[in-house]
Amino acid sequence: MTNVSTVKDDIRTALETLLGPEVRSIGADESFRDFIGERFDSLMAVEVVTIIEERFGIEVDYVGDDVRYWFETLEKMEQFVKERLEDTATLQAV
Amino acid sequence: MSAEHVFRTSGSTSAPRQWARTRRQMEQEARMILGTWAAGVTDILSFAPTEHSYGMILGQVGADVTRARLQSCSLEGLLLPDLQVRGPTVILCIASTWTLLASLLKRLVPQVPVLVLHSASALPSKAYAIVDRYAGQGATFIELLGSTETGAIAHRPIGEAATAWTVFEDVSLLSPVGVESRLNVHSPRIARAAEGQVSALTHQSDDWILAVGHGQFQWLGRASQLIKINGVRQDLGVLRAEISAVTQCQHLACMPLRDELRGEAYEVVFSSPTLTEASLAQAIERLGVHFPKPVQIRRVEQLPLSASGKPQAWAIQQTGS
């Protein structure tokens, strides 16, 4: 299981495989949607969610989770993933 | 809505074509499909854009003829539906919809009967797990085969990929039984080519099939370079020509790929002493926001051309994936 302290790096690594090395230059609080912009097709934002799900073994509920909010910046993504991992750990401990 | 509605396709050449469907044709199709599998429908959640015949006919026209509430949704735009539905609900899926379909069904199936229709692109492999989970619990899954030119031609339950297609009751299959051939049908719902005076009664499509009798056939593939990226038809030959022009690279091919999110997609394979994958990506960006982007760009050592100047298929296959 992923250690929550490495989540930040793991997110960037996962996104780098999808979007290229320029991901490294995005600030943690910069809009990710702006970065994707017109470089990629309209489904790339969904690809970002999918690769995060796969990398961390979590499931994003498009209806229940506010995807537009949580996947807006790297900082928010990190917070979302950490919370999900903690929830999973708690459930496994019960 | 006027008596005719015009749809545009990229066509099998670079020249876009226009196809006119009469209001009567569209209503007939909507009534037939929704009446067969979704009697009493009260809500239609459409992820299929109305620019395309599938979304227009089963979404907008379907809502008109059944008096159902239509919600136009989009995964790309994160426009998700209000799930406070009133009764039997239809979800119009394209390839990307399956990414969030389980979330929708988890909430809808305990409330109301749900019909999931899929069309306009190949099914992603994850579709089968969702069907296994919800089929028989109040959800029905049907795949439709059709085109802008013909409207819906055939249907099959979503389950086993090898299940034969069955033509609709008002369609006759003209392709010879037992021989691989193009899909050839007779139908009263064939669109009128905008430059023509009347609709044709028969149409030979780009689909390559094996007719097995009793109005059924196996779908084998496409006879041309057309693919459907998340339901939007694209001609790989045209895409190649445009990318070659903007990059001045002739040693370049656009190869079809299956894609979990988009149903089908394509990759660019090229060889060049000067271009890199990044510079080629930048060149494609210059083709504009509406130009379909490849999901992968791959530089290879050599991509020989044939005598006619086309990259040789055997060489592309040998580059691996």
Provide a short characterization of the protein structure.
The complex is a heterodimer of chains A (94) and B (321). Chain A has one domain: Non-ribosomal Peptide Synthetase Peptidyl Carrier Protein, Chain A.
Walkthrough of the structure:
The complex is a heterodimer of chains A (94) and B (321). Chain A has 94 residues and is mainly alpha-helical. Chain A has a single domain (4-93), classed as Orthogonal Bundle (Non-ribosomal Peptide Synthetase Peptidyl Carrier Protein, Chain A), CATH 1.10.1200.10. Chain A is 59% helix and 0% strand. Chain A contains five helices and no strands. Chain A has helices at 7-19, 32-36, 44-56, 67-70, 74-93. The longest helix of chain A has 20 residues, at 74-93. Chain A is globular and about 45 Å long. The mean pLDDT of chain A is 85. Chain B is built from seven helices and 19 strands. The model of chain B has no long low-confidence stretch (mean pLDDT 88). Chain B is of the alpha/beta class. The interface between A and B is medium-sized, with 17 and 23 residues.
